[in-house]
Every structure is written in C-alpha cells, then in structure tokens.
C-alpha cells in the first residue's frame, strides 16, 4: 500500500493506509537520545548566547583595555564572520569522520577560547580569541542538527527541532540580561571577563557528557561520503580572504581616517569574491564538490532570498550594538540597565517565534512580510524617538513599544525564513542551499556591525565636558546608526517578495508562486 504523506513539525512523515482507523502511537525514542539532545543544545545555547551577551560588555571592555572603537566592532563582527565561514566545511568533515568528534573538538576549542577571551590583556589578544571562539562555534553547531537527524525517528524529529528552536530564542534573548547581571554583580573592571567565563562550567560538563552520551557512529554511509564530504579548500580560502578584505576597511577605515590602503583592500576583497565565483564554476564543471554550488544561483528567487538573509541579519543584529553603547557610554547607565532595555525585544521574539510555524502554514510568505514590516516599523520608531527626544530625557520606557514590535516581527521572520528561501530550489539541492543561507546570515551580522560601527564612531564628536555633552554626542551618533539599520530593514522588506508565496508540504520540496 502507498503511504499517506502528512506534514509534521516541518518534516514529511509517512503513515500506512489501512481499512480501519489506526490508533496513533508515540514514536519510541530511547532516553539516551533525549539526554544527548540536552548535551547538544547546551553547546547551541553557549554559541548563541555569545552572539548577544557581549553587547552589554562592550563599554566595560573599552574602558578596561583602553580599546579602540574598531576593536568593539571586531569583537562582534569577527565572531560572526568566523562562525559563518566554518559552518559548511565543518558539516562536511562531520559527514566523513563522525559528527560526535567534530562536536567535541569544536566545543573544546570554544571553551578554551572563552577562557582566553577572559584572560586577554589587550585589544589584539581579545580579537584573536574571539575569532577562534567564532570558528569553534561554527565547527560544532552543524553537528547539532546532523546528530538530531541521526538519533531521532522522523515522527519525533519535529519535537526535537521545536525544542532546539526554543533554545535558540531563549539563549539569544537572555544574552544582554545575563551579561548585565554579571557586570552589575562583579563590577565593570573585571565583570566583562566573567561574561566569557560563564561558558566554562557549561562547556566542561557538556564535554564530559559528549563522550558518554553522543552516538559514536554519527557519520554518513560511505557512499554518501564520497559525494558530500570532499571539501573545496581553495574555495574556502578565496571566500574567507575576500570577506576579511572587505570587512577590515569597513571596521578600521573610519578609525584610521580612510587612508589609501582601505580602498585598495576593498578593491582586493571584491576581486577575491569574483575569483571565488569563477573557481566555484570551474569546480562544478569538473564534477567536483564546490563549497557553494553555482547552479543554486540559477534560481533568481534563491539569489534574492540569500541577499534577504544577509540584509535582514545586518539590520537586526546591529540594534543592540548601538543601544548598548549609547545607554552606557553616552547616557551613563549601568550594564544591567542596558541589558534590561532588551527585555521587550526578547519577549516579542519569543512570542513571535512561538506562533511563526502555525502562521507560516496559514499565511505562507505573508508571515515573513508581516515580520519584516514589524521590524521596519520598530526600527523607524526607535530612530524617531532618538531624533525627537532630548538626549538627557531618553529612557527605556521610550523604547519599550518599538522594541516589542521589532522583537515580535523578528520572531515571526527568523524561524521560517530558511524554509522559504530553500523552497526556491529543487528538493535535491536543499542541503547545500541551507548551508549557504546559514553562512550568509552570519556574514550579514558581521557586515551589519562593521557598517553600523563605522557610522556610529565616525560621526561621534564630543564638543564639550560633562554628561550633557556626552549624551548629545552619543545620541546623535546612535540616531544615524539606527537610521542605517532601518534602511537595511526597508531593503529586506522589498526582498521578501522574491520568495515563493508558500512552501508546499511545510518543507523545501516545492513552492507556489
């Protein structure tokens, strides 16, 4: 008999057709699998907590290490870029040698890099440790989804991924609050170091549990390894060098006064990206395994979707970079007060994410349109508040409504957006397309922070002594930076229309429209 296909939790699950009604039974999942899921999500929690927890520590780092403005941008952008560049090769290495040991190695390196971040004595040491931390995060995060696929039967996989989605939302939302509490409790001078060291006990316990609980044979069958596990190392070098060459002048240019080398480096970065594209086409023609399959971009909607991922993440990840520096360095608030500003956004994100799957099934692409519209409204509202409010009178109550609205929209967008972008390509290309989208999200975060940091610090001029002068200068710069973030959101809103109207079967198989 032919199976009846029914969508469940984002995956298509088959159930046999019988002449009498079947009593649904819960899939049998060993307790060990749920225990292993806790270990995997502990790593995911750390990696994503570190994308936001550091924001509230930036002013303390600036004071403690006498760090430059460019360093503050590198702390966020370097982590995001390194994280993104590691995703695809790490996934392919895991396919070959087993995802358990890739997860263990990445988690161990992440834990050691967290220790090194907290021990840093100057700008350079902190930036290097932070980049290594990002690389390590990009190593072990792909193993989380891969091992879930291997451990859980299809009928239980949806629940496992739903739990993972909740962890992603909570860890990102908790970051600024946890960071603020730590700095408030231990002081600005050394509290920022504990912001990194909070990973140490979690990492050590997760490493021990990994050895005993994760399945050792978490690798693809030999036949699949041949086609998927070959890594395009030259392609990885070209795209890494190109993105770094583009990022360095964006971060350092304003601080250095835009000397000639910044423009030459931008040009070199553009050439390296073009060379990467040419190399990928060459590898594909030789029936090799390109890092980014060029034929994916033969789908115009996929190209638009990838640009959407980059631009959207550039918009929303830069919000709290701007607010954290304004709140502490400009308005004189504590790190905890800065973290508390993010609570409306966090609540909105959790509420939006909890409804996004249901609304995506009902509304199709419109859920993304609503999400980005709300984010755009929220950012424009924040910009207007900063523009029209006297700097010394600005409080978290002014930002509560727009941040809640922006958070609600972000929650609606982030969870389902990958499915809609991947739906623009054939089902057989879904794995490669998902990897590209994940990388572009991280690259977007890095580029967004680089651009916003350049605008913020490039426009910062304190014209006199006293708290009032600081408040005026930092609010002016934050207003300009928020205008750029809002501009990114507007572009993302237009790009949503490149995606299909609906994902058929709640998966990346086909699209309508």
UniProtKB/TrEMBL annotation:
Superkingdom per UniProt: Bacteria
GO MF: transmembrane transporter activity
Gene3D superfamilies the UniProt entry points to: MFS general substrate transporter like domains (1.20.1250.20), Multidrug resistance protein D (1.20.1720.10)
Subcellular location: Cell membrane
Keywords: Cell membrane, Membrane, Transmembrane, Transmembrane helix, Transport
Keyword hit for Transmembrane helix: yes
Membrane topology (UniProt): Multi-pass membrane protein
InterPro entries from the UniProt entry: EmrB-like, MFS, MFS_dom, MFS_trans_sf
A single Gene Ontology CC term: plasma membrane
Any one Pfam family match given in the protein's UniProt record, by short name: MFS_1
Domain Major facilitator superfamily (MFS) profile, first and last residues per copy: 36-504
Main location as per UniProt: membrane
Transmembrane segment boundaries: 37-58, 70-89, 101-121, 127-148, 160-183, 195-221, 233-251, 257-279, 300-329, 335-354, 366-384, 404-425, 446-467, 479-499
NCBIfam families, per the entry: efflux_EmrB
PANTHER family the record matches: ACTINORHODIN TRANSPORTER-RELATED (PTHR42718:SF39), MAJOR FACILITATOR SUPERFAMILY MULTIDRUG TRANSPORTER MFSC (PTHR42718)
Name recorded for this polypeptide: DHA2 family efflux MFS transporter permease subunit
Organism listed in the record: Cryobacterium luteum
Lineage per the UniProt record: Bacteria, Bacillati, Actinomycetota, Actinomycetes, Micrococcales
